């Protein structure tokens, strides 16, 4: 056993091989986070192209074909390249630290899960340079756009998605096994920090629905190349079937992208309100309820395809039910802050903005859930406004808040609070300037996924584009802050946040390469 | 939560990155091959990618598993580590269950909704206007547009090969159970016998399945291209067959390891994981046999 004890205590390997061959959860967490940041900027550049074209009515910069490729690739890269890997990165860093485990349960598999991703996205991005161009059928790749009318690069799209799916499934298995099997002795399930709980449920959702995504892309591939007729009525199939299978994956997927952010917020709010979380048990139950409901609401994306009335009603009511557990969460966050001694450091600012702006997204979601009303809203900019409110000030703010919150522990350095505040306020203004006007143009009937629009939408679109440029450039400031922190930040204390509780703060700052090689004794605390 | 003190965190490993490169070459090569066949362009590079990728993947599997087995035999793994593997394998099988669930869901939707609607049933049955002569039935012998999707002459008779295959596969689950019992009793000859028999049953199943496919293609005009019946039939049975193939390879590896003297009556997770996988494949077949062939 002594040889084994030695491998546990040496530090990181020198040079580049450290990152390629590592089995260390902190290294792999960093890899995921850096990868996600790069993807955020690639996807962001595509959004920039979209907003530049939409700055004014008429066609100025790009051809409609290329515009469609941009919207498609933007969506795919942001979802599968930026948001999901960022959360896996956070899980890698934090789950072992928060449950007192020496590492993830299956460290080599962990490395494999990460390194699949750069290859998957290299494959996806290479389609931009193929004859016929990149996928242009929207991130939802509805048949027959992705079958009969697809560019030849659809084949590479299918295999790239397969790789992303393998990565996600293996990563999720690792998280689940770690949480079930690696908790410090004495830590019961109902002692788990909420971030860990949220990730446990997220991992379950991932394992349940990523295979369904694999199935649906496989059927697309078969229809394109091997003559099957899953999504072709001429052969007895049904294009609407595509939408059912896709959304059976994709609605839980939207919760995969937001539940870990819920977890982050549930960690940050108590710290800066200096009060324990209000209603821990209710928070856990609400998360479980959301995950369960997310499996039976998928066709709220399909109200206009001509479902039987019973279907419209069923999916309308179940969708509205989701607002109940979601409301419980919002209520509990606010109650946690109520009468707390609050301070407003950068992570807290992002967390509070999350609560406010995510709620706006939830409320527009409720409007969309009303089937007869959705006939008006469907495929308009109102939907774009809705999902950007839940995804940008929702998921992305959650990720940014988490980075500011835990960065001192990771790097041993403090970020520049003043710059952090600037980052927050510019992002906050940018986000609202970008996405709030979309509600109005959407309600007035501006369709989504078009490179040109009617004149009456011009003013709001210009505002939106200006907001987008502001938000995008502000994220360069984020990168500057990160680099500055790691290079020359002030030394962080053992407990950088006065009100913070939890195992991750009990390790030295910066967190040593190996932590909890002997599990912490929770009984004595 | 007993012995936590010695959780084995492996040192740096090159297998994952080799696996990632292998996966990239395999899937990228497959994509490029399909792409070049469609474009009728040169596919040599694609073939090289695909083949080298597959070789690398195979090498990775052998190397990685060998490393794990060696570590296990050195006694590096605690009971907790063993649980990690067990949980990991169970969740992996769950992901496979969901993969098949999607295809069974498709079959259900097609049979209960899509095909009747094409024939005008229900208040959404407007699609019948497209092909007024279309008649719904299951098995769907004639697609709405028979020019594009040629009709099926006859479907597979469930009471011949599929029934035999059911007996073979269900039987193989029992022989595998017997092998496991023998392993626990440390009865190595019986273990070898039962495990070997399981593999023979599995391979026979595969052989009959291939025969059935050839029969379907050459005599029944039942192909991937013959409309939605052919599509669901071949995708479901095909993915199942692929899993039987993988399962058989796993069992062969287990047999090889048994001959090497691996596994003890109380420590044989590798064997159990393979057995779980085999039973899972067997359960999928029972659903397949009822919903694809019988009903
Ligand atoms: C109270 C909770 C929510 C409700 C009631 C709700 C409802 C809806 C409805 C009905 C639609 C379809 C609109 C249409 O296409 O006509 C929709 C679209 C969408 N929602 Fe939500 N939603 C909720 C929360 C979320 C969350 C938390 C996320 C992600 C973090 C999300 C992401 C999306 C996305 C990405 C789309 C558009 C997909 C597309 O067509 O490309 N939603 N939502
Ligand atoms: Cu949804």
Q: Radius of gyration of chain B over alpha carbons?
A: 23 Å
Helix fraction of chain A? Answer: 55-70%
State the end-to-end CA separation of chain B: 47 Å
Instruction: Output the structural class of chain B.
Output: mainly alpha
Low-confidence parts of chain B? none
Of all chain pairs, the largest interface belongs to: A-B, 86 and 80 residues
Integer count of domains of chain B: 2
Number of strands of chain A: 2
Q: What is the CA-atom radius of gyration of chain A, in angstroms?
A: 23 Å
Q: Mind telling me the CATH superfamily name of the largest domain in chain A? A: Cytochrome c oxidase-like, subunit I domain
Average pLDDT rating of chain A: 95
Quaternary state of this entry equals heterodimer
Structural class of chain A: mainly alpha
- In N-to-C order, the SSE pattern of chain A is HHHHHHHHHHHHHHEHHE
Classify the helix fraction of chain B into a percent range.
over 70%
Form type of chain A: globular
Describe the structure.
The complex is a heterodimer of chains A (525) and B (295). Chain A is 67% helix and 1% strand. Chain A is built from 16 helices and 2 strands. Chain B is an all-alpha fold. Chain B has 2 domains: 1-77, Helix Hairpins; 81-294, Four Helix Bundle (Hemerythrin (Met), subunit A). Chain B has helices at 15-39, 44-73, 79-118, 161-184, 188-220, 227-259, 269-294. In chain B, helix 1 (15-39) packs antiparallel against helix 2. Chains A and B meet through helix 1, helix 2, helix 5, helix 6 and helix 7 of A and helix 1, helix 3 and helix 6 of B. The complex binds protoporphyrin IX containing FE and copper (II) ion. The site of copper (II) ion has 4 residues of chain A, from helix 8.
């Amino acid at each position: 056993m002594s040889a084994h004890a030695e491998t546990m205590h040496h530090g990181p390997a020198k040079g580049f091989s450290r990152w390629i061959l590592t089995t260390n959860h902190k290294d792999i967490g960093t890899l995921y986070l850096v990868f996600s940041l790069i993807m955020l900027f690639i996807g962001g550049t595509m959004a920039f192209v979209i907003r530049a074209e939409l700055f004014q009515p008429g066609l100025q910069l790009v051809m409609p074909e290329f515009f469609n490729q941009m919207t498609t690739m933007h969506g795919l890269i942001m979802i599968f390249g930026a948001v999901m890997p960022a959360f896996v990165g956070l899980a890698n860093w934090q789950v072992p630290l928060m449950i007192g485990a020496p590492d993830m349960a299956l460290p080599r598999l962990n490395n494999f899960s990460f390194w699949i991703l750069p290859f998957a996205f290299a494959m996806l991005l290479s389609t931009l340079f193929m004859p016929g161009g990149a996928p242009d059928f929207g991130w939802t790749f509805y048949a027959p756009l992705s079958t009969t009318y697809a560019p030849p690069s659809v084949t590479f799209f299918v295999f790239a998605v397969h790789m992303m799916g393998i990565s996600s499934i293996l990563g999720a298995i690792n998280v689940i096994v770690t949480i079930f099997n690696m908790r410090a002795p004495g830590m019961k399930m109902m002692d788990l920090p909420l971030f860990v709980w949220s990730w446990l449920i997220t991992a379950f959702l991932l394992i349940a629905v990523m295979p369904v995504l694999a199935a649906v892309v496989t059927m697309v591939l078969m229809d394109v190349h091997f003559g099957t007729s899953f999504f072709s009525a001429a052969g007895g199939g049904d294009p609407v079937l595509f939408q059912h299978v896709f959304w059976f994956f994709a609605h839980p997927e939207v919760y995969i992208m937001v539940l870990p952010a819920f977890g982050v917020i549930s960690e940050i709010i108590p710290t800066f309100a200096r009060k324990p979380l209000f209603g821990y048990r209710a928070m856990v139950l609400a998360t479980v309820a959301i995950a369960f409901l997310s499996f039976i609401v998928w066709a709220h994306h399909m109200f206009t395809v001509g479902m039987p009335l019973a279907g419209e009603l069923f999916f309308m009511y179940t969708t509205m039910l989701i607002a109940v557990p979601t409301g419980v969460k919002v209520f509990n966050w606010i109650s946690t802050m109520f009468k707390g001694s609050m301070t407003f450091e950068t992570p807290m600012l992002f967390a509070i903005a999350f609560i406010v702006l995510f709620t706006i997204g939830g409320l527009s979601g409720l409007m969309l859930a009303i089937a007869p009303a959705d006939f008006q809203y469907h495929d308009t900019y109102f939907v774009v406004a809705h999902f950007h409110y839940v995804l940008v000030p929702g998921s992305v703010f959650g990720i940014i808040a988490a980075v500011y919150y835990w960065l001192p522990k990771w790097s041993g350095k403090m970020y520049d609070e003043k710059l952090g505040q600037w980052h927050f306020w510019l992002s906050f203004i940018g986000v609202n300037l970008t996405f709030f006007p979309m509600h109005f143009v959407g309600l007035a009937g501006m369709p989504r996924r078009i490179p040109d629009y009617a004149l009456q939408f011009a003013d709001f679109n210009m505002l939106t584009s200006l907001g987008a440029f502001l938000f995008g450039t502000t994220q360069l400031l984020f990168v500057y802050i990160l680099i500055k922190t790691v290079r020359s930040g002030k030394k962080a204390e053992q407990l950088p946040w006065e009100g913070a509780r939890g195992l991750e703060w009990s390790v030295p700052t910066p967190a040593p390469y190996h932590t909890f090689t002997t599990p912490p004794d929770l009984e004595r605390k | 939560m007993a012995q936590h003190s010695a959780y084995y965190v492996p040192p740096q490993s090159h297998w994952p990155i080799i696996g990632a490169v292998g996966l990239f070459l395999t899937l990228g090569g497959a994509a490029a091959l399909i792409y070049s066949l469609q474009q009728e362009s040169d596919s040599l590079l694609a073939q090289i990618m695909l083949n080298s990728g597959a070789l690398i993947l195979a090498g990775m599997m052998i190397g990685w598993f060998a490393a794990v087995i060696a570590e296990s035999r050195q006694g590096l793994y605690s009971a907790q580590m063993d649980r990690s593997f067990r949980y990991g394998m169970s969740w992996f099988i769950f992901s496979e269950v969901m993969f098949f669930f999607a295809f069974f869901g498709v079959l259900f939707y097609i049979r209960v909704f899509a095909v009747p609607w094409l024939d005008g049933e229900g208040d959404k049955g407007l699609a019948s206007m497209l092909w007024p002569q279309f008649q719904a039935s299951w098995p769907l012998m004639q697609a709405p547009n028979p020019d594009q999707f040629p009709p099926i002459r006859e479907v597979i008779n469930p009471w011949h090969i599929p029934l035999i295959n059911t007996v073979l596969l269900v039987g193989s689950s029992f022989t595998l159970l017997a092998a496991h019992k023998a392993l626990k009793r440390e009865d190595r000859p019986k273990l070898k016998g039962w495990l070997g028999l399981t593999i023979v049953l599995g391979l026979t199943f595969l052989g009959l399945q291939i025969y059935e496919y050839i029969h379907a293609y050459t005599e029944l005009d039942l192909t991937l291209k013959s409309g939605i019946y052919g599509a669901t039939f071949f995708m479901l049975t095909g993915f199942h067959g692929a899993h039987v193939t993988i399962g058989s390879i796993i069992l062969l590896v287990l047999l090889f390891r048994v001959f090497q003297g691996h596994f003890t009556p109380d420590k044989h997770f590798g064997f159990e994981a393979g057995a779980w996988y085999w039973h899972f494949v067997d359960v999928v077949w029972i659903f397949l046999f009822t919903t694809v062939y019988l009903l």
